[in-house]
Amino acid sequence: MQVVVLENKRVIGSYFKMRLSYDGVLNALPGQFIMMKVNNSYDPLLSRPMSFHRIISPNPSLEKGGRGKFEILYQVVGKGTGIMSGLKEGDKIDILGPLGRGFLIPDWMDRAIIIAGGMGVAPMMALTEEISRHEVKKSKISISVFMGVKTKDDILCREDFERIGAEVYVSTEDGSLGKKGTCVDLLKELMTNTPLFSPPSEGGGCGGAIFACGPQGMLKAIAGIAMDKKILCQVSLDKRMACGTGACLGCVIKVKSQKYACVCKEGPVFDAGEINWEML
Amino acid sequence: MQVVVLENKRVIGSYFKMRLSYDGVLNALPGQFIMMKVNNSYDPLLSRPMSFHRIISPNPSLEKGGRGKFEILYQVVGKGTGIMSGLKEGDKIDILGPLGRGFLIPDWMDRAIIIAGGMGVAPMMALTEEISRHEVKKSKISISVFMGVKTKDDILCREDFERIGAEVYVSTEDGSLGKKGTCVDLLKELMTNTPLFSPPSEGGGCGGAIFACGPQGMLKAIAGIAMDKKILCQVSLDKRMACGTGACLGCVIKVKSQKYACVCKEGPVFDAGEINWEML
Amino acid sequence: MGDVISLSVNIAGINLKNPVMVASGTFGYGEEYVPYVDLNIISAIVVKGLSITPREGNPPPRIVETSAGMLNSIGLQNIGIDSFINEKLPFLKKYNTKVIANFFGDSIDEYCEVVKRVDSVDGIHGLEMNISCPNKQEGWLEFGTNPDLTFRVVSAVRKHTKLPLIVKLSPNVTDVTIIAKAAADAGADAISLINTLSGMAIDIKTRKPKLANIVGGLSGPSIKPVALRMVWQVAKSVKLPIIGIGGIMTYEDALEFMIAGASAVQVGTANFIDPNVSEKIIHGIESYCEQNGINDINKIVGSVII
Amino acid sequence: MGDVISLSVNIAGINLKNPVMVASGTFGYGEEYVPYVDLNIISAIVVKGLSITPREGNPPPRIVETSAGMLNSIGLQNIGIDSFINEKLPFLKKYNTKVIANFFGDSIDEYCEVVKRVDSVDGIHGLEMNISCPNKQEGWLEFGTNPDLTFRVVSAVRKHTKLPLIVKLSPNVTDVTIIAKAAADAGADAISLINTLSGMAIDIKTRKPKLANIVGGLSGPSIKPVALRMVWQVAKSVKLPIIGIGGIMTYEDALEFMIAGASAVQVGTANFIDPNVSEKIIHGIESYCEQNGINDINKIVGSVII
Ligand SMILES: Cc1cc2nc3c(=O)[nH]c(=O)nc-3n(C[C@H](O)[C@H](O)[C@H](O)COP(=O)(O)OP(=O)(O)OC[C@H]3O[C@@H](n4cnc5c(N)ncnc54)[C@H](O)[C@@H]3O)c2cc1C
Ligand SMILES: Cc1cc2nc3c(=O)[nH]c(=O)nc-3n(C[C@H](O)[C@H](O)[C@H](O)COP(=O)(O)OP(=O)(O)OC[C@H]3O[C@@H](n4cnc5c(N)ncnc54)[C@H](O)[C@@H]3O)c2cc1C
Ligand SMILES: Cc1cc2nc3c(=O)[nH]c(=O)nc-3n(C[C@H](O)[C@H](O)[C@H](O)COP(=O)(O)O)c2cc1C
Ligand SMILES: Cc1cc2nc3c(=O)[nH]c(=O)nc-3n(C[C@H](O)[C@H](O)[C@H](O)COP(=O)(O)O)c2cc1C
Ligand code: FES
Ligand code: FES
Questions:
Q1: Centroid of ligand 6 to alpha carbon of B265 (angstroms)
Q2: Domain boundaries, position A156
Q3: Which of C222, C229, C305 shows the shortest C-beta gap to D222?
Q4: Which residue is closest to C212 within chain A, CA to CA?
Q5: Is A70 found in the same domain as A115?
Q6: Contacts by residues D235-238 (CB-CB < 8 Å, ≥ 24 positions apart)
Q7: Which domains does chain C have, with CATH numbers?
Q8: CB of C146 sitting under 6 A from ligand 3
Q9: How many domains does the structure of chain A reveal?
Q10: Which of B188, C210, C303, D252 has its CA 20 to 30 A from that of C73?
Q11: What pTM was computed for the model?
Q12: Is C289 a catalytic residue?
């Protein structure tokens, strides 16, 4: 599928945001991703996985000639993202997607804890926007966003989250803003102050759930806490990918059944309980 | 050496002109070339040879902070030239050069016949400009430019040549402008109408000389005519190159001594008599 | 112009509507690409390498990008021949594309066992034998690098099947024609090549190999010159039809292989970058034939002018 | 930080001020690059392969660009050992860089003849023996692909020289460690690898090979994974110092080879793209050492963590 760059600009430092438009229907869910061929060179050869940062419906509607749009938020870390940062309005890019399994929003959820470590913030905007459109028992779902970054200049999208109505808590490793530490510390702090639980799948009550994306170590710590307290927790993993479709078997992780699962197809979002964290 | 793109624009069809500036001194001669690394990817890997189309002295002078400039004229034929056509003002490019041997302007020459087949026009502008700055016996050298192209839309730089004072004759293969045929036909026509000769190297008289650049078949025909009539003839050859410096031995042609000569180092401009035309 | 161009080729008795297949390990079991590709366009799907029992494969990381290529150390993870027949094949049979079962084993017996299971299975049109595996019983010598072993394993397999048998060669050898001849002598119906080149990459920060398995197989455009050279060599030295594989990204690449002597090609790594690449290659080949007045693709096979 | 980092390495008795040399055939006889490079920075120049008499080389076209690489079929064009000694060496001696004479022959005798001429020549610091040549006397088997021939030619050469003798291996073999061991047993002082991979390209318009010589040698970043794997294998199996070659473009590439087991590296094709690449690589290695608290480059040799 070919998409067209509408806008591509630096947010801050090495972080960029790109807005793209496409023809037809995409039907993307928060947590899903695309494979993006950054140019038509063989160096780099492979497409780069990028999460949907924002999924924007056609306006006017598709029937009235509107075009769907989406945004990606990315950090320049190497060759591929470096080339991406040089793309200009009107440039055409080949993508494949939407791919993988996105986040599942449980219908009993009245409280969402969204945890983003570093670049893990990318898919969380689409998720937050989606959750903010849901209701449980006719009232809004309360959303807390925990952002953990190295230093205050790495904080992205704070205002955007707040505009949607999410409460944002920040941790910085150097203490330059918010809590000094990581977003795992923010979660721990929350857990000591507020009772958070997920209702049993059969129960009729409401409860909270955790959604996390970020470095593997952070996800493991969060999954540990969540599973310990029996809180539903979905994590989005980041693995090197070649195909993005489950064909190459390149992006596997060990799951609880001791089998290998493809992050691109069976993930990138997994229930924390599915993953064999010891083998990761 | 790093050069900076000042301007890069389409001339017509697939032909582009790029103006570049550099720090310091380049000392390029007409007929010399650069190797240009079109971007920092490994695909394409090798640098592309490009002739100096125009060599522009710093103005104000180097001492007063001026920067030297040069232009290249190129046709988009593949990957490398395709990437070149996308370069923008301010982009930095790595080049190596000036490389090779340029045209020699004999001091007895009062008449220059400059023959350009297709893209062979590229180095001829620098040559014409240089010749127009020379004088023989205190008078200007008469310059005729023969341009042979497929169809009238491929004619490049005609006005530029005329502005310098050259007479321009055009041939098109489809007869859409000028003489129907090739620039070899233009040369033949000239030869039947005008006596053209090169003085013996020891003689004190004046005479004409031929300078040609273009497809191999055309150069061979011109060299044949020139050698037959004992007219000094310099041709610029085009061979695939890897290093441009004589190190790889990749760009060789057979010369009269039966040896291989590197086009990049011993050429690209050769005296027509040096080349073993049968083995080319 | 206007004339109908015949793109169909016959490889070892398998009638293919065009010369473009997808290579083993790069197209899963076909179903992975159904959302993106019309499988009916591809002449044959060579499925991910199958063994007698399911294989877990190597630990991750399993892939590394390289310059114009990639290394993989998937380690032949697969669901096993039985699950393939029961769970994947019925789906593939719905499409108008040939199914070629790529398979392997750790011993001659294992190779033969797989073949026995598939020989009478409806919907499998051919077999591709991956001999780039070490013989665990006889001291880890690779079946694909030792001509005696090649001969023995191919002969043994040949006895157990009437299906068209393609033997897929490893490029990690001194003289690929010797292996090709051994396979031909042992009764192969066709030769496909190349499998991946053995390669490695190291992370200079951690000083660890980038693949958990240390070494992996190099594929993609970077290996094309080596693949093409080997196809040309083998085409000159055995009489069997050849399937060219290695770094094919465009129709031009595919044609290079066919001109060098391949009757058909397989597209591998390119599928990851563009799942529709086969369709584009098929159309490109067709246009080339049209422009060059070729009415039958078979006419260009081996037409290299030396 | 601040500490002096020692970049010097010793290969087979040749003291190199840093581990970065330029590879044979990619730097001419040195003089070609003098306008662009300060030769004093490069630790050693391995000159274009020399033979006992001048060689004309193969007909053009001799080079083709490939994906992240290039094919060459120069065919060992060279001015011959005598002209080298008389016309090129005096110039090279002016620089503070070691001169390594790469050489070859069509027979064992020819190899030995070259060595006899250079053994006592002042200004040649070492020899690199290119064994990727066919033995014309004994049925065109390559010296570098048959371990018996490797042993015989290296033994013969060894008898005629006391100069440090580096044997340069061909990658076009099933098991490079067997050839490396043969060279080591025959008395080589060091092993360099890899030479180019054999490859091919075809022009689909003319249907002719793009190289007049049909096949050529593949070099550049595309071959790096194969080269690195072979360096690692050889480093594990012979006790000699190893020189890593193949697709080195950056200091990261050079470090990968050293971590894999190379005591030094040679930069080849990269010189064509940036004649100053060696200097950049040397600086990059130095910074890496600084950042990683390594005061002696030898400490990273073979430090791969498996
Ligand atoms: C499902 C998924 C969704 C993603 N979404 C986003 C997103 O929305 N925004 C974003 O900025 N990034 C995202 N990533 C990571 C992104 O794909 C990589 O940063 C990118 O591929 C790097 O490409 P490069 O060519 O710039 O880096 P390279 O030159 O390939 O590598 C540069 C450095 O980055 C590291 N690196 C490369 N790829 C990855 C990877 N997949 N994961 C971790 N480290 C890597 C390398 O080890 C190396 O150190 C996502 C990854 C996955 C798997
Ligand atoms: C000394 C010298 C000076 C040159 N000066 C100019 C110039 O001023 N302007 C200009 O437009 N071109 C010039 N050329 C030719 C130019 O270098 C090639 O057109 C260019 O390298 C093509 O690169 P590409 O990546 O776009 O094409 P590729 O993708 O590499 O090839 C595309 C097509 O062009 C052909 N091709 C590629 N390189 C060459 C070549 N060197 N000669 C002939 N055909 C080639 C290929 O066979 C192929 O058909 C010069 C060449 C030489 C040797
Ligand atoms: C991820 C991956 C998995 C592969 N798995 C197999 C396999 O199971 N069996 C096999 O015979 N070849 C396998 N191959 C090799 C390919 O079929 C093909 O021979 C090779 O990749 C070269 O072609 P390419 O450059 O077009 O990819 C695999 C290749 C890749 C990249
Ligand atoms: C144009 C060219 C000429 C070469 N000539 C020789 C040679 O004469 N002798 C030799 O041993 N190797 C020769 N080589 C091989 C290189 O020295 C080196 O081993 C190979 O190119 C791999 O390194 P690279 O990828 O860094 O280029 C040549 C390589 C190239 C590209
Ligand atoms: S990236 Fe290929 S299977 Fe996941
Ligand atoms: S291009 Fe290398 S010698 Fe001419």
A1: 7
A2: 111-234
A3: C222
A4: A250
A5: no
A6: D235/D260, D235/D261, D235/D262, D235/D302, D236/D177, D236/D261, D237/D177, D237/D180, D237/D181, D238/D177, D238/D180, D238/D181, D238/D183, D238/D184, D238/D191
A7: 9-59+74-201+218-300 (3.20.20.70)
A8: no
A9: 2
A10: D252
A11: 0.96
A12: no
